Amino acid sequence: MKTRIPLIIAAFAAALTLTACAPNAPSGNASAGTSAPGAAGTASLADLEHVHAVTGAPDSDNLLLATHQGIYTLSATGDLTGPIGGNRFDAMGFATLGTDLVASGHPGPDTPAELGSPNLGIIQSDDAGASWKPVALTGVEDFHVLTAGEDGVLYGVGSSRPNIVVSADGGRTWADRAALPVADLALSGGVLYATTEQGLQRSADGGATFEAVPDSPALALIEALPGGQLAGIASDGVLWRGGSDAGWEQLGTVAGRPQALGTSGERVIVLDDRGVVEYAGGETKVIL
């Protein structure tokens, strides 16, 4: 889905070490370009340096890992390959938008100049990550949080200021919403959720205003689940599933500091010191 702002939510950062690019290979310089890409192939988690986001691929049961070294594919059998298209770039922010991929971050040594430097702004791929094109804010913005809803609306928070911004045209134009310092965003059941120092908050008006979600855990990382629910990791490392109207269920506890949280259908995916861990159907399985 996305990555998080390292200078916001100090309490969460201390508890979960929510750094943007700190290496933390569990027990892997950037480019979404199409010219002179680095070689792609079989990889290990150590090759990735840092994983910023994990989400389900739009067209398969595979997982996509947005990393410091590009976008990688993790198959259901645990095979890790990439970077896709040989494109090495620091994918700080990442989301799926329908069947397209949207990313932000920093270029790598072989990134085409047209994609921007020192920041990529918004870049988009319509061929599953094989190639990328610049969309907006090229060279200007570095989105640390990106998330999209089923309606195709894209929400983000850049590194330059705390405003939540929204785009209804695939990231081409953006409008300001609430100036709310957040660690993470997720859109579920038409409601935009945000993790903040004051706790989990929600917006029913597209991010213009927010209110506290009563009786919710102190979540730092969140992802959408079907049925308007959320998966979230709290500042004490507990993994939760629930929502504002459904109560909360504890799924487990992460090992060490989590790098990323993602979902794919009903599956909850955590990347922590154990590796890539799947929570599904009441079972926990280390995929890689």
From TrEMBL:
Coiled coil: none annotated. It comes from the Bacteria. Keywords: Signal. The keyword ATP-binding does not apply. CDD domains: Sialidase_non-viral (cd15482). PROSITE patterns: PROKAR_LIPOPROTEIN. Residues 1-22 form the signal peptide. This is BNR/Asp-box repeat protein. The lineage of its organism: Bacteria, Bacillati, Actinomycetota, Actinomycetes, Micrococcales.
